[in-house]
């Protein structure tokens, strides 16, 4: 089977088409939000929030199977706002409080699903992602969250950047920092909820971090970092879906493994480039020192660095 | 240069206490900022200098007492360089433009904003560095970039946290001249500093802080062994050189004098 066949043949299955669309958009979306999450040092919050959303997912299924997305969404938004409020208090124990809230919520979700069983997506697919059973409603939900996220980034671009870089000065410069933070947390929880089915609760945090970290290695411009991160995220989603199909393992795991491979590759490329630049700079400094030492023609002076 | 606090009061702190969580860092602080103020806040580490600055900025609220600002007061803040995230992916121009966050929603700068940023960077002598990443600047240039960001807000009151921390002598002189020029342009200035000889002694007005205001006045009035002992909790010797006080650590001149001389 050649490459074209390998790419085309899975597309004959509608479940794969839907999975591919959702994974690619999810990757881009997590990549975009991930820029803010990593630059704010909130990777742990992203990890915790995805677990908290799982609690809502399980509880909402139990009480209103048809509306579990809305229930999980409300739970996620409430958790996001609670975490935002705790993390802003700057107490030493804030991270511990977040750990308790989110893992408590996750444990509740596991307990409820174990006791009563899943009525919507299965336990495993919620944890590790699955391409089976993605509904049209979920695709439209994801597109809606994507549009909301892009609108937020475009129209609150400056406020988000300023509050991420320097919240105190932003506050004193007339930016409503609390509102901006809350907005970001709400969009983060909606993004986690919308991408949960394909990527999975336990793996979402990785896709929030990996594309953004790789993008930061590539560029030093904020706007370019957003574009690179979204691009890398969607590429990981796309490639990961095919690998998942052929390897026969949950989609979330292959998407995250693809991201990890991209991260490792970026790290190697950066290390090699840094080593080459160091060598070049050293050689340039040596030749400059040789040119500016006419008294020792033909003999290189020892240069101290 | 006056700056000892004359003219209209633009900001007033009355019997204010402030702190973080349960701990009170400042107690019973009374302070007026006048339209001609040029004040240096000195004190030991943990004395509440930065908290006082943040109180004036409005990001720390008084637990007790009051803080009254003039209605149209525009305050701008220059952070301590050590507190900045230098890995943040932002260029000098983008960083300066943050000052205009509340005035435009769209991500890209308008033509007028670009002109204004170029003008303020030019004035501060870093006009050719606009497209550089913030880490690629020297300490003095980084400080100027944050002053540029502050000036873009067209402030009446400029607050600076340790503006000469970690810079060399020439950069410190340049900074003093720059701040003096800005003050001459009508901007009130309040800054914190650890540097008694290189910075504080050159300012027109000083405030010694250790959880409360221990003393205030001109350098000649407050840089005295008694006031410094009350502020820093250590005996410091003060010499006079060309009419300016010079602080010498008593340990160097006394206890360890035999070793160092």
UniProtKB/TrEMBL annotation, chain A:
Cellular component terms (Gene Ontology): ATP-binding cassette (ABC) transporter complex
Subcellular locations according to the entry: Membrane
Entry keywords, A to Z: Membrane, Transmembrane, Transmembrane helix
Listed Pfam families: ABC-3
Chief location of this protein within or outside the cell: membrane
Membrane topology note: Multi-pass membrane protein
GO biological process terms on file: response to zinc ion; transmembrane transport
Residue stretches spanning the membrane: 20-39, 51-76, 96-114, 126-155, 182-214, 253-272
UniProt similarity note: Belongs to the ABC-3 integral membrane protein family.
Protein name: Unannotated protein
Organism in which the protein naturally occurs: freshwater metagenome
UniProtKB/TrEMBL annotation, chain B:
Record-linked PANTHER family: METAL TRANSPORT SYSTEM ATP-BINDING PROTEIN TM_0124-RELATED
PROSITE patterns associated with the record: ABC_TRANSPORTER_1, ABC_TRANSPORTER_2
This protein's UniProt keywords: ATP-binding, Nucleotide-binding, Transport
Residues making up the signal peptide according to the UniProt record: none
Entry protein name: Unannotated protein
Molecular function terms, GO-annotated: ATP binding; ATP hydrolysis activity
Residues in ABC transporter domain copies: 11-236
């Amino acid at each position: 089977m050649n490459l074209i066949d390998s790419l085309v043949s899975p597309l004959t299955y509608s479940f794969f088409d839907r999975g591919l669309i959702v994974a690619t958009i999810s990757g881009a979306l997590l990549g975009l939000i991930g820029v803010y999450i990593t630059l704010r040092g909130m990777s742990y919050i992203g990890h915790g929030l995805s677990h908290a959303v799982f609690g809502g997912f399980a509880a909402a299924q139990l009480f209103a199977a048809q509306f579990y997305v809305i229930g999980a969404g409300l739970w996620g938004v409430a958790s996001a706002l609670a975490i935002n409020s705790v993390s802003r208090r700057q107490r030493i124990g804030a991270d511990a409080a977040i750990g308790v809230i989110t893992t408590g919520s996750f444990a509740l979700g596991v307990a409820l699903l174990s006791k009563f069983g899943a009525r919507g997506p299965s336990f495993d697919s919620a944890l590790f992602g699955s391409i089976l059973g993605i509904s049209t409603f979920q695709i439209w939900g994801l597109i809606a969250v994507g549009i909301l996220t892009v609108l937020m980034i475009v129209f609150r671009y400056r406020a988000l950047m300023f509050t991420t870089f320097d919240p105190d000065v932003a506050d004193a410069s007339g930016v409503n920092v609390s509102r901006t933070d809350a907005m970001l947390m709400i969009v983060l929880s909606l993004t986690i909820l919308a991408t949960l089915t394909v990527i999975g609760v336990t793996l979402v945090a990785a896709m929030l971090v990996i594309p953004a970290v790789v993008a930061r290695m590539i560029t030093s411009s904020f706007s370019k970092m957003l574009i690179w991160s979204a691009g890398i995220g969607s590429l990981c989603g796309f490639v990961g879906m095919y690998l998942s199909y052929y390897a026969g393992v949950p989609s979330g795991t292959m998407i995250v493994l693809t991201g990890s491979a991209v991260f490792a590759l970026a790290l190697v490329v950066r290390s090699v480039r840094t080593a080459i630049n160091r060598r070049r700079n050293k050689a340039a400094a040596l030749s400059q020192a040789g040119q500016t030492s006419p008294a020792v023609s033909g003999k290189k002076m020892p240069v101290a660095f | 240069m006056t700056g000892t606090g004359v003219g209209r009061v633009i900001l007033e702190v009355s019997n204010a206490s402030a702190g973080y969580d349960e701990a009170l860092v400042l107690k019973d602080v009374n302070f007026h900022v006048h339209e001609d103020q040029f004040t240096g806040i000195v004190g030991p580490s943990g004395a509440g200098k930065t908290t006082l600055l943040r109180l004036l900025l409005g990001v720390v609220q008084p637990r007790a007492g009051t803080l009254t600002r003039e209605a149209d007061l525009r305050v701008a803040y220059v952070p301590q360089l050590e507190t900045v995230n230098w890995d943040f992916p932002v260029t000098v121009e983008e960083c300066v433009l943050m000052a205009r966050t509340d005035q435009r929603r769209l991500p890209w700068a308008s033509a007028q904003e670009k002109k204004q940023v170029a003008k303020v960077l030019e004035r501060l002598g870093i006009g050719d560095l606009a497209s550089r990443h913030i880490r690629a600047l020297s300490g003095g240039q980084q400080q100027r970039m944050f002053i540029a960001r502050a000036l873009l807000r067209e402030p009446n009151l400029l607050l600076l946290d340790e503006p000469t921390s970690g810079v060399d002598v020439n950069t410190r002189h340049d900074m003093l001249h720059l701040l003096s020029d800005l003050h001459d342009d009508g901007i009130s200035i309040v800054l914190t500093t650890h540097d008694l000889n290189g910075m504080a002694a050159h300012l027109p007005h000083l405030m010694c802080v250790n959880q409360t205001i221990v003393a205030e006045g001109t350098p000649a009035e407050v840089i005295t062994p008694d006031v410094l002992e009350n502020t820093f909790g250590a005996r410091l010797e003060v010499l006079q050189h060309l009419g300016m006080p010079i602080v010498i650590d008593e340990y160097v001149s006394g206890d360890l004098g035999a070793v160092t001389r």
